[in-house]
Structures are given as C-alpha cells and as structure tokens.
Write a structure and sequence with these properties.
This is Type II secretion system F family protein. This protein is mostly helical and 201 residues long. The protein is 85% helix and 0% strand.
C-alpha cells in the first residue's frame, strides 16, 4: 500500500503568514515607538527652553511700556520691575523679574541681577532690553521716551517674526506626516515582506 503525501492546507499556510506578519508588524511598531519616545524625550528640555525664551521675548514690549510708565511717575527701576512681577505673576517674564528683584533684595546690585537675567535668557533682544534698563537706571525719567521707542521696535520685530513663522508653517506640517503617518502606513507591508524573507513563506 502506497502512502499518499499529505497536501498542504492553503488555509493553514495563510494563517501562518498572517501570524508572522502580525508579529513582524508588532515588533516594528514597538521599535519605532521606542525610538520616537527617545527622540521626544531628548528634545523636550530644548523645546521647553526655547518656549520660555520666546515667551519672554514676546512679553518684552509690554514690559518696557510698564517700566516707562512707572519711571514717568517717579518710581525707581526696581519698583518698576516689581510692578511687572505683580502684573504677570505666572508669566515667564514676571517670573524672571521676580528672580531679579529677589537677587537685589539678597544683596546683588541691580546691574548684576539684570546681567544674570540676560545670561538665563540669552539673545539679542534681551541684551538690548537689559542695556536699555541699565541706561534707565543711570538717567531715570529722561530715558522714558527711549524705552517707549524700544518697545515699539520690539513689537515690529515680533510681528515680522510671527509673519515669517506663518509662511513656514505649511512646510513644517509635512514633517509629522513624513515621520509618523507614512511609517505607520508602510508597517503592514514591511511586516509581510519581512516574514517572507526571513521564514520563506
């Protein structure tokens, strides 16, 4: 009696390929997710620093206006900075000036405290801002008009910056599409191809 070879069940073969594809997709997705989380974690601190700096920069015109107003009515520069802290207690600029006022109360000179602020929030805008405040410390009310002009100049720069960012936005929106959506779409295909190459099914 001759034994007949068992024919391969197409359904079982298909289930095997599907199972391997699912495993491959799961492994690929896990690796991709791990790498993505690592990149996000690495960039988080840098993004927070950039956001803090930008928030301070955007608030500088209002800060200069308030300082000019306080100087115009005879207040001192430290008192003017304290008023900004009271007006913006939860905003980055208010918190930064709270540090400045705290350092002055601790015995630092106002010049040193302002230079420390400039080092914490580096940039040409804060350098100009601190320079204007140091000049205001020396000249008092005579600097009010200059501070107001500086505030207007900052506003124009911010408006141009926002307009530039708006033009760049469509290009930046393509990055999440390329980085997230396309790989997720290709994962099933890659999984099936990987299963065929590795296991020959």
């Amino acid at each position: 009696m001759v034994d007949c070879p068992l024919s391969e069940d197409p359904g079982a073969s298909m289930m095997s390929v599907s199972g391997l594809a699912v495993v491959s997709v799961f492994i690929g997705a896990s690796c991709y997710g791990f790498l993505l989380r690592a990149l996000l974690k690495a960039n988080k601190q840098r993004a927070q620093t950039r956001l803090h700096k930008q928030s301070v920069y955007y608030a500088l015109p209002a800060g200069l206006d308030l300082i000019a107003l306080q100087l115009a009515v005879g207040a001192g520069l430290v008192a003017a900075l304290q008023r900004i802290v009271e007006f913006f207690p939860t905003q980055p600029l208010g918190r930064e000036f709270a540090v400045v006022c705290g350092q002055v109360r601790s015995g630092f000179s106002l010049e040193t405290a302002l230079k420390n602020f400039r080092e914490r929030v580096p940039g040409p805008q804060t350098a100009l801002f601190v320079g204007a405040l140091l000049q205001a410390q020396q000249q008092g009310g005579a600097i009010v008009e200059l501070l107001t002009q500086q505030a207007d100049s900052f506003r124009n720069e911010i408006a141009e910056h926002i307009e530039k960012k708006a033009h760049e936005l469509p290009i930046k929106l393509l990055m999440p599409l390329v980085a997230l959506i396309f790989p997720a779409t290709l994962l099933p295909v890659i999984g099936v191809l990987s299963a065929k190459l590795i296991w020959g099914v």
